Amino acid sequence: MGINGGENGMFVDYDHSIVSLSCSILKHYGAEYHHKTFEPMDELLQHPYKHVVIMLFDGLGLEVLRHHLPENSFLRSHALGELSSVFPPTTTAATTSIESGLTPAEHGWLGWNLYFPELGDIVSLFPNTRRGTQEQAAKFHAARQYLRYRTVYEKIEETGNAKAYVVSLYGSARITKYEELFDTVKGLCRKEERNYIYAYWGEPDYTMHDVGCCHESITEIIRDIDQRVERLCRDLEDTLLIVTADHGHGDTGYFLIRDYPELDRMLERPPVIEARAASFYVKQENLEQFPDLFKRLFGDQFLLLSKEAVLGQNIFGGGVCHPRLPELMGDYLAVAVSGMGINYEDSDSKWKSNHSGFTEREMKVPFIAVEKR
């Protein structure tokens, strides 16, 4: 378990997190798991449901849900509590934890951008592109090659106790349109087999990045999700449906490292991971001066942690750390505890709303359950 948050931010609670939720799924199907399970989920799974579904809507954090939906809405009226995301609370790290039952320390998919010395380049993990370009980073998928892990689906199917499906743009049950998400889940829940279904959709995160987390268009998107989940549940039988998110969101401004040449000169390369969880590779001769300069420039906007502090406090989670973890995190990690992020240069994405920092709005996600017996 990671350390607790101070008054400026919230550290992840791995014992009551989406990792715990995933481990409850593995336990339920008799598969191998390595972390504490989530007790409310274990209690729900005492009933032998034929179908267990986790629907994850990207960015639908607890605060976002409460802002855009009334208390008597379908999703909020079925909320049983909350979960913690992982650190950093971002899609790359969080969905990989959901799909593996591992902490980011174990799987190594820490954020959008990571540096791989074999390639001599910073790679955007999911699209496998060189940082800030559409150019492929390698002829193979770098993260899948260097940061391999066994999925929840593989582990479940190896037990022979159930089939496992991923409903997403890139899943085993592949969809291309939003409407297909619900139709595909419904179809899989009509199969005679016992199965586990993980369904992912990239909203409201995708639009919140562009317009901010409180825009009226986000209200429309979340209301539509609420209505479609309610309609789906009317047609389900012998199914436990869980709705949650990978992380929350908050409106964000940005500092640019290029605006601070004295700091920029201390760096080996642009920062990696995320704008609100920025990891710095510092030149050897500047390792001692860097933290003082950083704090002088940015004050209390970020929590600056050395590599040793990050590892010692299990901020990326417990378990057997991936052997690459120390090199992936750089020398210093700057974690946002305010409304600001850190970009390297003006061409970097300046999302109006973002995530990956140490605030409750980013870290807390809903635990919503619908039981159809």
Automatic annotation (TrEMBL):
One of its GO terms (molecular function) is hydrolase activity. It comes from the Bacteria. This is Type I phosphodiesterase/nucleotide pyrophosphatase. It comes from Hungatella effluvii.
